[in-house]
Amino acid sequence: MSKKGKVYAVGIGPGNIEHMTIKAYNTIKDSEVIVGYKTYIDLIKSLIHDKEIISYGMKSEKERCKKAVDLARQGKIVSIISSGDVGIYGMAGLLLEVADQNKSTKTMEIEIVPGVTASVAAAASIGAPIMHDYVSISLSDLLTDWEVIEKRVEMAARGDFVICLYNPKSKGRQRQIEIAHDTLLKHKSEETVVAIATNVKRQNEKITITTLKDMLKHSIDMFTTVIIGNSKTHMSVDDQFMVTPRGYKI
Question: Using CA atoms in the order 149, 154, 156, 159, what is the torsion angle rounded to 10 degrees?
Fold first, then answer.
């Protein structure tokens, strides 16, 4: 009887191996095949030199998932990787949809392995900006209509949430962050504390603390996470850390 294959959807964290969970680390080490976007493959290359590696370029998410499922159905132990957490703008959902469509769940196993998402990693580098209620919104309109995204930004701002913006800007998407900024200014003070975190927990990490008014004066790209505070977010400990109070009396 042939062995039953398995595919793991693994969140590798923000990029530095020391911030990968032990479960993710061990899963990757125990896998026979690693499937993923080339940039993410490169982040963990020291772990996978003895593995079969199948890397893809941008916009190949379906192909990655189909390949991982096909290999698992052949009896392979496969890890399909995403940066951050695999279930937050990652590959987990698409993998499950592909497996379901192909009626593959009886011939293979699936397990989701969580990771440290960008907003959490950025928050740790900044202080404690998401101590209270917050929302994560991706500004990428590749798969979601911009009108829907803009409405979500507006509702989050009106609700005084801390807002974590993923995918704020790229070479092909310049205007979205500007429109979102205009929307935020309608419902939040221009002095609201904002953190701009780029390449978080990687060698060239860059953290900028600014205000909502001046947010667009700073460099923002596809490797940036932007955290916009709520009305109580402030700087603390000689202005070293961004803090959103939980409500404790001190």
Answer: -160
